[in-house]
Amino acid sequence: MSEEYITFTNEHGHAVQMPRADYEEKIIPYNLERFWDDRESLRQFAVDLVRDKFTAHAATAADRLLELYGPIESALIFRAVVYMQAGKWDKAKKKIREAIERYPDSDTGYLNLARIFAYEGDHLRALETLEQVLSKDPNHETGLKLYVENCLKLEKNEELLDKLQQWGEKESAWRPQLTIGRLAMQEGNLLQAMQFFSQALERTVEREAALLAVTGELGQAGYVYQLIQMCEKYWLPTFAQPYIAFNYANALLVTDQKAKALAILRECQQHLPEEKKEMVDQFIERIPGANEQPVMTEQPAAADGEAKKAWWKIWK
Protein backbone atom coordinates (compact mmCIF):
# COMPACT_ATOMS: atom_id res chain seq x y z
CA MET A 1 0.00 0.00 0.00
CA SER A 2 1.51 3.34 -1.08
CA GLU A 3 2.17 6.03 1.50
CA GLU A 4 -0.34 8.88 1.62
CA TYR A 5 0.95 12.41 1.18
CA ILE A 6 -0.57 15.72 2.25
CA THR A 7 -0.15 18.78 0.05
CA PHE A 8 -0.15 22.10 1.87
CA THR A 9 1.12 25.65 1.53
CA ASN A 10 3.90 26.54 3.94
CA GLU A 11 4.38 29.90 5.64
CA HIS A 12 6.50 31.09 2.71
CA GLY A 13 3.66 30.47 0.24
CA HIS A 14 5.23 27.38 -1.35
CA ALA A 15 3.31 24.18 -2.10
CA VAL A 16 4.81 21.28 -0.15
CA GLN A 17 4.11 17.55 -0.04
CA MET A 18 4.76 15.52 3.10
CA PRO A 19 3.90 11.99 4.29
CA ARG A 20 0.64 12.05 6.25
CA ALA A 21 2.26 10.76 9.45
CA ASP A 22 4.99 13.42 9.32
CA TYR A 23 2.44 16.13 8.63
CA GLU A 24 0.39 15.07 11.64
CA GLU A 25 3.43 14.89 13.88
CA LYS A 26 5.21 18.08 12.81
CA ILE A 27 2.95 20.52 10.95
CA ILE A 28 -0.39 20.21 12.72
CA PRO A 29 0.87 20.95 16.25
CA TYR A 30 3.01 23.79 14.89
CA ASN A 31 0.09 25.38 13.04
CA LEU A 32 -2.35 24.94 15.92
CA GLU A 33 0.04 26.77 18.21
CA ARG A 34 0.81 29.41 15.58
CA PHE A 35 -2.86 30.15 14.82
CA TRP A 36 -4.26 29.62 18.34
CA ASP A 37 -5.16 33.29 18.83
CA ASP A 38 -5.66 34.14 15.13
CA ARG A 39 -9.24 33.12 14.56
CA GLU A 40 -9.34 33.65 10.78
CA SER A 41 -6.14 31.66 10.14
CA LEU A 42 -7.29 28.98 12.59
CA ARG A 43 -10.65 28.76 10.83
CA GLN A 44 -8.99 28.20 7.46
CA PHE A 45 -6.63 25.60 8.94
CA ALA A 46 -9.53 23.84 10.68
CA VAL A 47 -11.32 23.47 7.34
CA ASP A 48 -8.17 21.87 5.92
CA LEU A 49 -8.05 19.46 8.87
CA VAL A 50 -11.63 18.35 8.19
CA ARG A 51 -10.92 18.00 4.48
CA ASP A 52 -7.88 15.81 5.14
CA LYS A 53 -9.75 13.89 7.88
CA PHE A 54 -7.55 14.75 10.83
CA THR A 55 -10.67 14.60 12.95
CA ALA A 56 -9.17 14.74 16.44
CA HIS A 57 -7.11 17.81 15.59
CA ALA A 58 -10.10 19.39 13.83
CA ALA A 59 -12.06 18.94 17.08
CA THR A 60 -9.39 20.83 18.99
CA ALA A 61 -9.54 23.65 16.45
CA ALA A 62 -13.36 23.68 16.44
CA ASP A 63 -13.53 24.02 20.22
CA ARG A 64 -11.04 26.88 20.10
CA LEU A 65 -13.01 28.62 17.35
CA LEU A 66 -16.08 28.59 19.58
CA GLU A 67 -14.01 30.25 22.27
CA LEU A 68 -12.70 32.87 19.86
CA TYR A 69 -15.90 33.63 17.94
CA GLY A 70 -18.49 32.76 20.54
CA PRO A 71 -21.63 30.77 19.61
CA ILE A 72 -22.08 32.24 16.15
CA GLU A 73 -23.90 30.12 13.58
CA SER A 74 -20.87 29.11 11.49
CA ALA A 75 -18.82 28.08 14.55
CA LEU A 76 -21.66 25.97 15.96
CA ILE A 77 -22.29 24.27 12.61
CA PHE A 78 -18.59 23.62 12.10
CA ARG A 79 -18.37 21.98 15.52
CA ALA A 80 -21.33 19.80 14.57
CA VAL A 81 -19.69 18.82 11.28
CA VAL A 82 -16.57 17.69 13.14
CA TYR A 83 -18.75 15.63 15.49
CA MET A 84 -20.37 14.08 12.41
CA GLN A 85 -17.00 13.20 10.93
CA ALA A 86 -16.09 11.52 14.22
CA GLY A 87 -19.35 9.53 14.18
CA LYS A 88 -20.65 11.30 17.29
CA TRP A 89 -24.15 11.76 15.96
CA ASP A 90 -25.94 12.63 19.19
CA LYS A 91 -23.46 15.40 19.97
CA ALA A 92 -23.73 16.63 16.40
CA LYS A 93 -27.53 16.81 16.63
CA LYS A 94 -27.33 18.64 19.93
CA LYS A 95 -24.97 21.24 18.51
CA ILE A 96 -27.06 21.70 15.34
CA ARG A 97 -30.23 22.13 17.38
CA GLU A 98 -28.43 24.76 19.43
CA ALA A 99 -27.56 26.55 16.17
CA ILE A 100 -31.16 26.35 14.90
CA GLU A 101 -32.52 27.59 18.24
CA ARG A 102 -30.21 30.60 18.12
CA TYR A 103 -30.56 31.10 14.35
CA PRO A 104 -34.02 29.84 13.24
CA ASP A 105 -33.34 30.73 9.60
CA SER A 106 -30.19 28.59 9.46
CA ASP A 107 -30.50 26.61 6.22
CA THR A 108 -27.13 24.98 6.92
CA GLY A 109 -28.39 23.76 10.28
CA TYR A 110 -31.47 22.11 8.80
CA LEU A 111 -29.46 20.56 5.97
CA ASN A 112 -26.95 18.96 8.32
CA LEU A 113 -29.69 17.78 10.66
CA ALA A 114 -31.38 16.14 7.67
CA ARG A 115 -28.08 14.46 6.75
CA ILE A 116 -27.89 12.96 10.23
CA PHE A 117 -31.47 11.67 10.07
CA ALA A 118 -30.76 10.14 6.66
CA TYR A 119 -27.59 8.48 7.97
CA GLU A 120 -29.63 7.02 10.83
CA GLY A 121 -32.17 5.69 8.32
CA ASP A 122 -34.93 8.07 9.42
CA HIS A 123 -35.71 9.35 5.95
CA LEU A 124 -39.15 10.68 6.91
CA ARG A 125 -37.65 13.02 9.50
CA ALA A 126 -35.00 13.98 6.97
CA LEU A 127 -37.75 14.99 4.53
CA GLU A 128 -39.64 16.96 7.16
CA THR A 129 -36.44 18.79 8.07
CA LEU A 130 -35.59 19.59 4.45
CA GLU A 131 -39.07 21.00 3.91
CA GLN A 132 -38.16 23.71 6.43
CA VAL A 133 -35.56 24.89 3.91
CA LEU A 134 -37.38 24.30 0.64
CA SER A 135 -40.65 25.89 1.73
CA LYS A 136 -38.70 29.15 2.07
CA ASP A 137 -36.26 28.68 -0.82
CA PRO A 138 -37.48 26.26 -3.48
CA ASN A 139 -34.30 26.91 -5.49
CA HIS A 140 -31.98 25.58 -2.77
CA GLU A 141 -29.80 23.24 -4.81
CA THR A 142 -28.43 21.08 -1.99
CA GLY A 143 -31.81 20.91 -0.28
CA LEU A 144 -33.49 19.66 -3.46
CA LYS A 145 -30.75 17.09 -4.03
CA LEU A 146 -31.13 15.70 -0.52
CA TYR A 147 -34.91 15.75 -0.77
CA VAL A 148 -34.86 13.72 -3.97
CA GLU A 149 -32.40 11.21 -2.49
CA ASN A 150 -34.54 10.63 0.60
CA CYS A 151 -37.79 10.37 -1.36
CA LEU A 152 -36.29 7.79 -3.70
CA LYS A 153 -35.01 5.80 -0.72
CA LEU A 154 -38.63 5.57 0.50
CA GLU A 155 -39.94 5.03 -3.07
CA LYS A 156 -42.15 8.10 -2.67
CA ASN A 157 -41.96 9.03 -6.35
CA GLU A 158 -45.46 10.47 -6.66
CA GLU A 159 -45.14 12.47 -3.45
CA LEU A 160 -41.83 13.79 -4.69
CA LEU A 161 -43.33 15.06 -7.96
CA ASP A 162 -46.26 16.63 -6.10
CA LYS A 163 -43.89 18.52 -3.81
CA LEU A 164 -41.65 19.66 -6.65
CA GLN A 165 -44.63 20.95 -8.61
CA GLN A 166 -45.94 22.71 -5.50
CA TRP A 167 -42.60 24.43 -4.88
CA GLY A 168 -42.29 25.17 -8.60
CA GLU A 169 -45.38 27.36 -8.43
CA LYS A 170 -43.67 29.80 -6.09
CA GLU A 171 -42.49 33.08 -7.55
CA SER A 172 -38.97 32.88 -9.05
CA ALA A 173 -38.82 29.09 -8.56
CA TRP A 174 -36.96 27.26 -11.32
CA ARG A 175 -34.83 24.51 -9.75
CA PRO A 176 -37.90 22.38 -8.97
CA GLN A 177 -38.68 22.36 -12.71
CA LEU A 178 -35.07 21.52 -13.47
CA THR A 179 -35.25 18.65 -10.99
CA ILE A 180 -38.46 17.28 -12.52
CA GLY A 181 -36.76 17.41 -15.91
CA ARG A 182 -33.82 15.40 -14.59
CA LEU A 183 -36.14 12.80 -13.09
CA ALA A 184 -38.12 12.58 -16.33
CA MET A 185 -34.93 12.03 -18.31
CA GLN A 186 -33.88 9.27 -15.91
CA GLU A 187 -37.23 7.63 -16.60
CA GLY A 188 -36.61 7.87 -20.34
CA ASN A 189 -39.27 10.53 -20.91
CA LEU A 190 -37.24 12.96 -22.99
CA LEU A 191 -40.26 14.98 -24.16
CA GLN A 192 -41.33 15.74 -20.60
CA ALA A 193 -37.73 16.45 -19.61
CA MET A 194 -37.40 19.04 -22.37
CA GLN A 195 -40.68 20.66 -21.36
CA PHE A 196 -39.56 21.10 -17.76
CA PHE A 197 -36.06 22.19 -18.75
CA SER A 198 -37.65 24.88 -20.91
CA GLN A 199 -39.89 25.96 -18.02
CA ALA A 200 -36.86 26.28 -15.77
CA LEU A 201 -35.01 28.38 -18.34
CA GLU A 202 -38.00 30.63 -18.96
CA ARG A 203 -38.56 31.29 -15.26
CA THR A 204 -35.05 31.77 -13.98
CA VAL A 205 -33.11 34.98 -13.59
CA GLU A 206 -29.99 32.76 -13.35
CA ARG A 207 -30.06 31.85 -17.02
CA GLU A 208 -26.40 30.92 -17.28
CA ALA A 209 -26.46 28.57 -14.27
CA ALA A 210 -29.67 26.93 -15.46
CA LEU A 211 -28.48 26.42 -19.03
CA LEU A 212 -25.16 25.02 -17.82
CA ALA A 213 -27.06 22.45 -15.77
CA VAL A 214 -29.40 21.58 -18.65
CA THR A 215 -26.65 21.21 -21.25
CA GLY A 216 -24.63 19.14 -18.81
CA GLU A 217 -27.54 16.76 -18.27
CA LEU A 218 -28.34 16.47 -21.99
CA GLY A 219 -24.70 16.11 -23.00
CA GLN A 220 -23.94 13.36 -20.49
CA ALA A 221 -27.03 11.48 -21.66
CA GLY A 222 -25.98 11.81 -25.31
CA TYR A 223 -28.93 13.96 -26.40
CA VAL A 224 -26.82 16.26 -28.55
CA TYR A 225 -29.57 17.49 -30.86
CA GLN A 226 -31.70 18.52 -27.89
CA LEU A 227 -28.65 20.24 -26.38
CA ILE A 228 -28.17 22.19 -29.60
CA GLN A 229 -31.86 23.10 -29.62
CA MET A 230 -31.61 24.53 -26.10
CA CYS A 231 -28.46 26.49 -26.89
CA GLU A 232 -29.91 27.93 -30.08
CA LYS A 233 -32.73 29.37 -28.02
CA TYR A 234 -31.06 30.34 -24.75
CA TRP A 235 -27.27 30.60 -25.14
CA LEU A 236 -25.72 34.07 -25.20
CA PRO A 237 -22.12 34.83 -26.18
CA THR A 238 -22.00 37.35 -23.33
CA PHE A 239 -22.25 34.70 -20.60
CA ALA A 240 -19.55 35.15 -17.96
CA GLN A 241 -18.03 31.69 -18.41
CA PRO A 242 -17.20 29.67 -21.55
CA TYR A 243 -18.47 26.32 -20.25
CA ILE A 244 -21.87 26.35 -21.98
CA ALA A 245 -20.13 27.29 -25.23
CA PHE A 246 -17.90 24.23 -24.72
CA ASN A 247 -20.96 21.99 -24.26
CA TYR A 248 -22.60 23.60 -27.29
CA ALA A 249 -19.47 23.21 -29.42
CA ASN A 250 -19.03 19.57 -28.41
CA ALA A 251 -22.58 18.79 -29.51
CA LEU A 252 -22.01 20.57 -32.81
CA LEU A 253 -18.78 18.65 -33.40
CA VAL A 254 -20.51 15.34 -32.71
CA THR A 255 -23.10 16.25 -35.34
CA ASP A 256 -20.44 17.25 -37.92
CA GLN A 257 -20.99 20.99 -37.61
CA LYS A 258 -17.39 22.02 -37.06
CA ALA A 259 -17.70 25.42 -38.73
CA LYS A 260 -20.56 26.41 -36.49
CA ALA A 261 -18.78 25.07 -33.40
CA LEU A 262 -15.72 27.19 -34.13
CA ALA A 263 -17.84 30.26 -34.81
CA ILE A 264 -19.65 29.81 -31.48
CA LEU A 265 -16.35 29.49 -29.64
CA ARG A 266 -14.83 32.54 -31.31
CA GLU A 267 -17.92 34.63 -30.69
CA CYS A 268 -17.91 33.60 -27.05
CA GLN A 269 -14.21 34.40 -26.76
CA GLN A 270 -14.74 37.99 -27.86
CA HIS A 271 -16.75 38.72 -24.70
CA LEU A 272 -14.48 37.01 -22.17
CA PRO A 273 -11.81 38.70 -20.04
CA GLU A 274 -8.24 38.03 -21.09
CA GLU A 275 -7.58 35.38 -18.43
CA LYS A 276 -10.45 33.25 -19.76
CA LYS A 277 -9.77 33.65 -23.48
CA GLU A 278 -6.90 31.20 -23.20
CA MET A 279 -9.35 28.47 -22.13
CA VAL A 280 -11.15 28.86 -25.45
CA ASP A 281 -7.86 28.78 -27.39
CA GLN A 282 -6.93 25.54 -25.64
CA PHE A 283 -10.34 24.05 -26.48
CA ILE A 284 -10.00 25.03 -30.14
CA GLU A 285 -6.48 23.57 -30.33
CA ARG A 286 -7.93 20.13 -29.52
CA ILE A 287 -10.27 20.27 -32.52
CA PRO A 288 -8.68 18.51 -35.51
CA GLY A 289 -8.26 20.86 -38.46
CA ALA A 290 -9.53 23.89 -36.54
CA ASN A 291 -6.91 26.21 -37.98
CA GLU A 292 -7.83 25.27 -41.55
CA GLN A 293 -11.55 25.80 -40.99
CA PRO A 294 -12.91 29.06 -42.45
CA VAL A 295 -14.77 31.28 -40.01
CA MET A 296 -18.50 31.45 -40.68
CA THR A 297 -19.84 34.98 -40.91
CA GLU A 298 -23.20 36.59 -41.40
CA GLN A 299 -24.67 36.08 -44.87
CA PRO A 300 -24.44 39.00 -47.33
CA ALA A 301 -27.57 40.97 -48.12
CA ALA A 302 -30.04 39.31 -50.47
CA ALA A 303 -30.36 40.49 -54.04
CA ASP A 304 -33.87 41.75 -53.41
CA GLY A 305 -32.59 43.98 -50.61
CA GLU A 306 -34.04 41.90 -47.77
CA ALA A 307 -31.28 41.21 -45.26
CA LYS A 308 -30.83 37.53 -44.53
CA LYS A 309 -30.64 36.35 -40.94
CA ALA A 310 -27.29 35.49 -39.41
CA TRP A 311 -26.41 31.81 -39.91
CA TRP A 312 -26.99 30.85 -36.26
CA LYS A 313 -30.57 32.10 -36.50
CA ILE A 314 -31.47 29.81 -39.39
CA TRP A 315 -29.24 26.83 -38.71
CA LYS A 316 -31.18 23.57 -38.60
TrEMBL record:
<dbReference type="InterPro" id="IPR011990">
    <property type="entry name" value="TPR-like_helical_dom_sf"/>
</dbReference>
<feature type="repeat" description="TPR">
    <location>
        <begin position="107"/>
        <end position="140"/>
    </location>
</feature>
<keyword id="KW-0802">TPR repeat</keyword>
<protein>
    <submittedName>
        <fullName>Tetratricopeptide (TPR) repeat protein</fullName>
    </submittedName>
</protein>
<dbReference type="InterPro" id="IPR019734">
    <property type="entry name" value="TPR_rpt"/>
</dbReference>
<feature type="repeat" description="TPR">
    <location>
        <begin position="73"/>
        <end position="106"/>
    </location>
</feature>
<dbReference type="Pfam" id="PF13432">
    <property type="entry name" value="TPR_16"/>
</dbReference>
<dbReference type="InterPro" id="IPR051012">
    <property type="entry name" value="CellSynth/LPSAsmb/PSIAsmb"/>
</dbReference>
<keyword id="KW-0677">Repeat</keyword>
